[in-house]
Every structure is written in C-alpha cells, then in structure tokens.
Task: structure prediction
Amino acid sequence: MSSDRMHGEALISKTVVPSGIEDPVERARAELRAALNAIEVKGNLPRRASDAIQRGAVKARAFADGNPGAAVAAAVGAAAAVGAVVWGLARLIAR
Result:
C-alpha cells in the first residue's frame, strides 16, 4: 500500500464518526472530534499543497518513465513558456 493512500485513509478515519455509539454524550463528543479534525485537515493549506506537489511529481515521473521523448518535449515547452513570460515582463518593466 502506498504511503499516500495510507495517509488518506488516516485522514478519513480521523474525520469519520464511528458507528455503534449508543451514549448520546459519547456520540456528541465523537462528532465534535471528527468535525474539528475535518476542519484541521481542510485548513492545513501547506500540507495540502505539499501533498498536491508530491502527487504531481509522482505522475510526472510515471509519465517520463513511460514516454521519455514526450517528457523531454514537455520540459522544453514549459521552459520556453516560462522564458517567454519572463522576457515579456522584463520588456514591460523596461518601458
């Protein structure tokens, strides 16, 4: 099992109210705990950004492994696009 999947399952288990709780006070506590954990997961933007970057890197590696020519072409195209944007901004600033 991948660490990303295990991390996702851990987050889900923290934000789900267990079934079978009969005591209303215990159920309310479990619901509050799950709600607070869900807010923490949603509000932790640096962690979410880090996870998204990691997923993107894994997809890029898989793409490069499966199709190295297209990966090189995509990298050259991305570099050219960034260069064009920087050149355009430098030209605007120089005016």
The two ends are 56 Å apart (CA to CA). Residues 7 and 54 are 13 Å apart (CA to CA). The helical segments are 3-15, 24-43, 45-66, 68-94. DSSP finds four helices and no strands in the chain.
